[in-house]
Task: structure prediction
Amino acid sequence: MRYWLFKSEPSTWSWDQQVANGDAGEEWDGVRNYQARNFMREMQVGDRGFFYHSQKEKAVVGIVEVIAEVHSDSTTEDERWECVDIKAVRSLPKPVSLEIIKADPKLTEMVLVKNARLSVQPVTEAEFELICKLGGI
Result:
């Protein structure tokens, strides 16, 4: 299993909306960055990830699971763009802010710290476990 982080602006797609979709999940569509798209090409069903609210909140708020491997993004006819489907697994009891992540010396190499603009990014197993712990899991 691999671990990932999916960033979303809550005004566009929020954690509450993701949770409301239940086991049906949702396409992680609209990604128009080649590096982020290529990360989605590496994902497999069962991989886990963090759901991260960007903009004002800037915090990991939940855990998701990849439920469908890469396929054409239904929001465009451009064949270059693909996406995966994810479903909500659980909320973090305590959201983990970017400020907390940046302050932890064990997370200084995290992609979120080094390339905060990338909307889909890998997370190491150690980073995943530490953020879960920080979030009350």
The beta strands are 3-8, 26-27, 48-53, 59-72, 82-97, 120-123. The longest helix spans residues 125-134. The two ends are 18 Å apart (CA to CA).
